């Protein structure tokens, strides 16, 4: 199955910009399904971890209020082209996914 | 019996120190009480219990002041504060006002960009922990159609 995560990096002047999009419904638990008329149960990503060469650079705690198909961008120093960057997530159903890429 | 207990505790201890138990510890960090809070003051007080938060102009929230649909509100947060350690986002009129927390390693710049949901016209409140102290700023956003349901 294709990964739920798209991860891109760009390094300039020793600063790496990371951009990620994760495919996930991020259900709040407040939305009513239009056909069944029932509340759709909450189902959202709780934790996102980004590692640079196995060291955590960013760790995120999310609520139901991060938009569907979450977007995340941040910047960090000290990476060089070819270093490993890994992003992983865990949601409220303990589902998980991860991806790694080489820093550009 | 005693020896068995000692052995047991040794095993637990070595698991702990070898880092095998880490995923559990990381999971435990998610602050259930604060994320479940339905009132802004309750959310911020349970996330930062008994801590002073100082208003600052050193945090910039870049957001469109008028939003048509609250389902997707793009947000950029920048801070010039030195040694930023975390960035925490609240929306005071959302059903659950704590939106997200980002723990920054020392390598990170004081910058986060994401997209959030807003149910009502509200203040977005951003708290930055920098060099061990808490700072905050806020931005009001007009929302025409709620994005939580």
Structural class of chain A: mainly beta
Shape of chain A: elongated
Approximately how much beta-strand content do the residues of chain A carry?
over 45%
Q: How big is the Rg of chain B? A: 19 Å
Largest interface: A-B, 33 and 36 residues
What percent strand of chain B?
35-45%
User: Considering DSSP H and I runs of 4 or more, what fraction of the residues of chain A is helical?
Assistant: under 10%
Physical arrangement of strands within the biggest beta sheet of chain A: 4-3-6-7
Give the biggest beta sheet of chain B.
6 strands, mixed
Instruction: Give the total of beta strands of chain B.
Output: 9
H and E order of chain A: EEEEEEE
Oligomer: heterodimer
Provide a count of the helices of chain A.
Answer: 0
Fold and architecture overview:
The complex is a heterodimer of chains A (104) and B (149). Chain A is elongated. Chain A is an all-beta fold. In chain A, the strands form 2 sheets. In chain A, strands 4-3-6-7 form a 4-stranded antiparallel β-sheet, with no helix packed on it. The two termini of chain A are 25 Å apart. Chain A has strands at 5-12, 15-22, 45-52, 55-62, 71-77, 84-91, 96-102. The longest helix of chain B is centred in the N-terminal third of the chain and has 17 residues, at 2-18. Chain B has 149 residues and is of the alpha+beta class. Mean pLDDT of chain B is 87; it is low at 15-27. Chain B is built from 4 helices and 9 strands; from the N terminus they run H-H-H-H-E-E-E-E-E-E-E-E-E. In chain B, strands 1, 3, 5, 6, 8 and 9 form a 6-stranded mixed β-sheet that branches. Chain B has helices spanning 2-18, 22-28, 32-36, 40-47; strands at residues 53-55, 59-62, 66-69, 73-79, 84-91, 98-104, 108-116, 122-130, 133-145. Chain B is globular and about 40 Å long. Chain B starts with a helix and ends with a strand. Chains A and B meet through strand 3, strand 4 and strand 5 of A and strand 6 and strand 7 of B. Strand 4 (55-62) of chain A pairs antiparallel with strand 6 of chain B.
